[in-house]
Every structure is written in C-alpha cells, then in structure tokens.
Amino acid sequence: MNFAPPRAATGNVQSLDEYRAPRAPLRRQVSLDEERRDDCQGHWRGPYLEGAEEEKGVRLFRAMLLQHLRLEDLRPPPCMVTAANPDDRGWWMYWRDWRSLERAVLRFRETKAKAQLAARAEHIPLLSLDEVQFEDIMQELCQACVHIEQRALLVMAFLCEVVGRAVRVGGWCRAADWAAKHVAQCATPWAVKHGGWSAVVERAGGPRRDDALLAGAAIAALLAFLLFCRSRLRQALL
C-alpha cells in the first residue's frame, strides 16, 4: 500500500501575489524594546541635557509621564522608572514645580483637547517610524498650537500620549528617547523665553491654595509645639 500523500494539482495553486481576497491580519511586529529589555539603562540622562533648564524640563516630563501611565493603568517599563538628574535646588523646589504641573495636568485631562491628542497619537505608526518622521509630526503639532499660551505643556501632554501608546504596542524605548530629546531641545527654549520651567508650570497650575493651607497648618503646628514646650518648661522650673 502506498502511504505517500497525494499531490495537489498544480493548476489550482495560486501565488500570494495573485491572491486578491482579504487576508488575516499579521501578528504585531515585536519591537527591539521587547527583545532587549535589560540593555536599556534609562532615558533621562542623555547627551542633549546641556543646562539646568533642560534637566528640569526632562525631570518634569518624566514625572508627568509616570503619572499619565498610572492614570491609564499602564505599568511603566523599568527603563522609564530610572531616576533623572537630581535638582540642585533641593527636593522642595522640585516638589513645588511638580505640584503646579500636576494641577495643570489634572485640569487638562478634563478638556476636549486631551481626547483629541489621544486620538492623534493612536494613528502614529510607532514600529515603522524613525526619528526624522517623529520630529516632522512634532513640528506639525507645534505649528498648530503656536498661539496657545501653554504650548510647552500641550506638547508634553501629547508626548505622554505617544509614549503611553508605545508601552501598549511596542517601541517605548525609542519613543521615550525621542520625547525626552524633544522636551530638552525644542520645548525648553520656548519655556526659557517665557521665564523658565518653574514660571511656566506655576502659571499653568494656577494659585497654590493647597500649598498655602499646608504651609499655614505647618506654621500653626510649630507655634502650638513651641507654646507647649514653653508651658512644660515653666512648670518644670516652678
């Protein structure tokens, strides 16, 4: 008995180039980020950081991105959690800038512009994009919002949407590198012309009512403690 499989008729075989019917979608391309997770050492200390304002802008963008990923229920890759260059002014000044930026971000998430930026980011082919094409997209966005008062923060919000999508579909290392470089080289000069990053985020964040309440509560607690120590000392002396 012959167990050889029967040969298909050659006349019925059709090449893929001639096949016009709809095909099943291809599997998502695996990015280099997923193949080499341990090679990336972070994105916040690149050679494009030439001054204090560039470092401050990248540091604020990192905090803004991590908050965006948390609000979108996305786990950040380890390379995004790595620390940025510390603020020479101390943690208090950085915390004050971040609190102002955080208030601006939370207000921005309630506007229609947030949904528009997210929809625009969804149409960016991250896995087939190079840095030149990425910068072309960013330049188009900058030209579209040239008359917007908080232009730098709008650009940073769009970059958060782009990197957040990259975390979902792949290509996050390239996206984070390009985003940090754009913040340092393009958004920071605009911020410097408008008083620096601290002034920009303070205007965007509005009045610091919660910070004033915290400062008042701290002063009141300190005065109460001093009065208590004074009364205890008087009782001990008597």
UniProtKB/TrEMBL annotation:
Transmembrane segments: 212-229
Annotated keywords: Membrane, Transmembrane, Transmembrane helix
UniProt entry tagged with the keyword Transmembrane: yes
Originating organism: Danaus plexippus plexippus
Region listing for Disordered, in residue ranges: 1-21
Record carries keyword Membrane: yes
Descriptive protein name: Uncharacterized protein
GO biological process: regulation of apoptotic process
